[in-house]
């Protein structure tokens, strides 16, 4: 009786965290009127990774509760992207990104091999997203408006998703993705906190 209850708790807590996951990040950017430290490249790669992952789960008819948070995070990422473009005076690029993502979403499922290949690349895309944010932090040695809370919540959802994946679909590609993301999310969180500390002592 323990496992189903734990599984429910893991699902619910993941969705709960994901409904607010980007809120600390959005709040920080809005309050400062600046997206300093937040990597645009990282965000675009993250969005691409999320869209592929969502499309893959839908294509294979996986249970909705195993990926329900993705539409929620994607919506928040889009808002964050628009804020970054607005504060950097690049609003015209929003349309360009929209067309690219829309076209990609459609093309992914034209052939089964395309979605399978994309899903295998998806882990690399998402890992590249985390590394782009790390690089941004290392270069500036300043965590700016980057939210440690958002990144630590991402780590938590990866941990719960490792558990729910093992208990439900046991898809190895999905598992490898979450384990990789967990390690990188913890790394980004630690780096943000590290530069926050060095900032205070300056």
Question: What is this entry, summarized?
Answer:
This protein has 202 residues and is mainly α.
What does this structure look like?
With 202 residues, this protein is mainly α. It is globular and about 50 Å long. It has helices spanning 2-20, 23-32, 40-59, 69-87, 93-107, 112-140, 148-167, 172-201. It folds into two domains: 1-110; 111-201, Monooxygenase (Up-down Bundle). The chain is built from eight helices and no strands. Helix 1 packs antiparallel against helix 7 (148-167) and helix 2 runs parallel beside helix 4. The mean pLDDT is 93. Helices cover 80% and strands 0% of the residues.
> In sequence order, what are the helices and strands, one letter per element?
HHHHHHHH
In this structure, how is the largest beta sheet organized?
none
* Proportion of helical residues: over 70%
Shape: globular
Q: How many helical elements?
A: 8
Low-confidence stretches: none
Given helix and strand content, the structural type is mainly alpha
- Can you tell me the number of structural domains? 2
Radius of gyration: 17 Å
In whole angstroms, the N-to-C terminal distance is 54 Å
Mean pLDDT: 93
Protein name: PQLC3 protein
InterPro entries: MannP-dilichol_defect-1
Transmembrane segments: 12-31, 38-58, 70-87, 94-114, 174-195
Organism: Psilopogon haemacephalus
């Amino acid at each position: 009786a323990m496992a189903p209850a734990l599984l429910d708790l893991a699902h619910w807590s993941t969705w709960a965290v994901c409904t607010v996951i980007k809120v600390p990040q959005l709040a920080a950017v809005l309050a400062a009127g600046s997206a300093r430290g937040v990597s645009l490249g990282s965000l675009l790669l993250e969005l691409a990774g999320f869209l592929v992952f969502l499309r893959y789960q839908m294509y294979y008819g996986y249970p909705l509760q195993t990926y329900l948070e993705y539409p929620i995070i994607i919506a928040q990422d889009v808002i964050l992207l628009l804020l970054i473009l607005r504060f950097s005076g690049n609003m015209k690029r929003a349309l360009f990104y929209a067309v690219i993502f829309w076209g990609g979403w459609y093309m992914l499922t034209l052939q089964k091999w395309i979605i399978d290949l994309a899903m295998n690349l998806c882990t690399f895309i998402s890992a590249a997203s985390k590394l782009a944010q790390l690089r941004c932090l290392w270069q500036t040695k300043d965590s700016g408006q980057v939210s440690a809370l958002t990144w630590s919540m991402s780590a938590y959802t990866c941990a719960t998703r490792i558990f729910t994946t093992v208990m439900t679909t046991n898809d190895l590609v999905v598992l490898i993705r979450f384990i990789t993301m967990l390690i990188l999310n913890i790394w980004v969180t630690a780096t943000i906190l590290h530069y926050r500390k060095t900032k205070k002592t300056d």
